Amino acid sequence: MTSSLVLRAALLGIAAGGRSSLGLAAPALTASRRRPVRLAALAAVAGELVADKLPATPSRTIPPSVAVRLAAGAAGGALLARRQGGPLLPVLAGAAGAAAGTLGGARWRELAGRRVPDLPAALAEDVVVVTIASLACRGIAAGR
Description:
Keywords: Signal. The protein is mainly α. The chain has helices at residues 3-18, 22-31, 35-51, 63-81, 88-113, 118-136.
């Protein structure tokens, strides 16, 4: 296990803190060659990207949402580590990243919402978390 793996797990956790589906979907999209798995992962991310913009969507900082995001970050860390053994540290890094991404993303939306309408702020956040997840999962198909 390398420090790069732990960093990537933390980054994936940050992304999962922003959009919980990315914790599992990003590794699936980058590593799986099975079409049904990739389609399900893509549908989960697309659904969450849309649902996030709805006014009835609850805050990411309420207990059930936080728990899901922490679990998604931890699971993403485990997926990144499964080919390299010893997933405990990446799992913890993924969960810690998810906590940071959850709180940081909520704070970002609060601050951005004071300056611009919510939709552009949410779309900017989408771009950031999808980019972070993509960077975290680079090379996963090759087992790196």
